[in-house]
Specification:
This protein is α+β, with helices and mostly antiparallel strands and 96 residues long. Helix content is 43%, strand content 22%.
Length: 96
């Protein structure tokens, strides 16, 4: 199950999306920000406190397509696992 870091907010600066830690000062510094696209932003918006990976996967899959072939679902699942792993490594989300 996942929980978002409450200090992280999603901001859109066309055409990219940024996950930003609002507790850090970014003035005149070279802070790291997590840059993503609209797919990553949709994943971020899909993650709810306490959702398991399968719940996030099912909700995300429903939002993006009606296609339900096994190959497509496997591809989406792999990509989603990698994205969530990156968020976790950066401490943007936590496993609870």
């Amino acid at each position: 199950m996942y929980k978002k870091n409450s200090n992280i907010v999603l901001r859109k600066i066309y055409p990219s999306y940024f996950l930003v830690d609002i507790t850090k000062c970014y003035n005149n510094t070279k802070q790291k920000m997590f840059i993503t696209d609209e797919v990553g932003a949709e994943i971020w918006n899909t993650i709810n406190c306490g959702d398991s990976f399968e719940q996030v996967f099912d909700k995300f899959l429903e939002k993006i397509t009606d296609e339900k072939t096994a190959d497509f679902k496997d591809c989406v699942k792999t990509d989603l696992q990698e994205f969530i792993q990156r968020l976790s490594e950066q401490e943007y989300i936590y496993e609870v």
